[in-house]
Specification:
Blueprint lengths: L3 H9 L1 E7 L5 H17 L8 E7 L11 E7 L5 H4 L8 E3 L8 E8 L2 H10 L4 E9 L1 E3 L8 E4 L7 H22 L7 H9 L11 E11 L2 E9 L3 H14 L4 E11 L2 E2 L11 H38 L1 H15 L1
Parallel strand pairs: 5-11
Antiparallel strand pairs: 1-5, 2-3, 4-5, 6-10, 6-11, 7-8, 9-10, 11-12
Length: 332
């Protein structure tokens, strides 16, 4: 018979995501959630103690009557929580694509059997979205706003059109790298189907690739970039901002990196600091399961519609009408 704590742990197995604040190490986030999950699991009511039959002496009888015994059911105190300790003393929480200390945003975590799903997520071609807050006129040693300043430049000559040209050049170079690292013939039907589904990408690890890059705010010296990428690091994204500044004959530094999406997980799914409890994590995992199940049903129905449309194109509308009429005549 499973205990309430074990049943709760089974419902906790899966994937969920949290919002990692800037300035907090991802290990501290993981350790905090592990501690909260252990507290929630061990706070559930325990099973009643098992009993055993023991023969106890009956002291009420007189000494002249001799020793008498009686059967009694007593609890087994060796299995009491005060003796055995908490039922759960260790829980493994896995971490997906990690974030630097200075970065913030969506951080995917897993519990129990969800760690295997997390490994599959690493091997897929899922992209991630970032929002980069940048500033012209400064170059630092580590390409971040907190680094040691090595150069100061002017930025009055930079316009929105010049920025868009540099972004288009970077996108073209990264699209070429995406095709080069994809082990698929670009002239094949397979490459077309993968590109339609958004699954065209390198197999396994490769150089960082930007699949999309656009400027969503341009107010010099400040500007904001929206990036979609594969196999990236936050340091690489800061370096991209530095290279954009060099291409514009100036300098630029990244003031903040914020991940807004990691695969299927978005900011709307992320649990904030006060929601890192066992109950909220369980609710988030159940929502992820239901969303994944509904997507499977939608994908199956979509494939059926596509298959039916393909059959109609192959057989023709007249033949389909004749088949339908023949079927109705047989049924009548």
């Amino acid at each position: 018979m499973r205990s309430p704590a074990m049943r709760m742990f089974r419902s906790l197995e899966g994937l969920f995501c949290v919002y990692k604040p800037a300035g907090v190490h991802w290990k501290l986030v993981r350790d905090t959630i592990e501690t909260n999950l252990l507290k929630g699991l061990n706070a559930t009511p325990a099973l009643p103690l098992p009993h055993e039959v023991r023969f106890l002496s009956n002291d009420e009888a007189g000494a002249s009557s001799g020793l008498t015994l009686r059967a009694a059911s007593v609890p087994i105190l060796s299995q009491h929580p005060l003796v055995t300790g908490p039922e759960f003393q260790l829980i493994k929480v896995g971490v997906g694509h990690r974030l630097d200390v200075s970065s913030s945003g969506v951080l995917v975590l897993s519990v129990g059997k969800g760690n295997r799903i997390l490994n599959d997520l690493y091997r897929t071609r899922t992209t991630r979205d970032y929002t980069l807050d940048c500033e012209f006129g400064t170059a630092t040693q580590d390409f971040t706003h907190a680094g040691r300043v090595v150069e100061r430049t002017t930025y009055g000559h930079i316009t929105r059109d010049k920025m868009e040209k540099v972004i288009a050049m970077l996108e073209g170079a990264n699209q070429k790298a995406l095709r080069m690292y994809s082990n698929v013939d670009m002239s094949s039907q397979e490459a077309y189907e993968l590109a339609v589904k958004g699954l065209l990408g390198p197999d396994g690890k490769s150089v960082p690739i930007l699949t999309s890059l656009r400027c969503i705010r341009f107010q010099p010296p400040n500007f904001t970039l929206e990036v979609q990428c594969l196999n990236e690091t936050q340091k690489y994204l800061c370096k991209v901002v530095h290279e954009i500044g060099l291409e514009l004959r100036s300098s630029a530094v990244c003031k903040g990196v914020r991940r807004t999406r990691d695969g299927q997980f978005t900011l709307q799914d992320a649990l904030t600091r006060h929601q890192w409890t066992a109950a909220d994590v369980m609710r988030a995992i159940q929502q992820y399961r239901s969303k994944k199940k509904s997507k499977k049903i939608f994908r199956t129905r979509t494939d059926e519609v596509i298959l039916q449309t393909s059959e109609e194109k192959l057989t023709g509308p007249e033949e389909n009408r004749d088949n339908k009429e023949a079927t109705e005549a047989q049924s009548s």
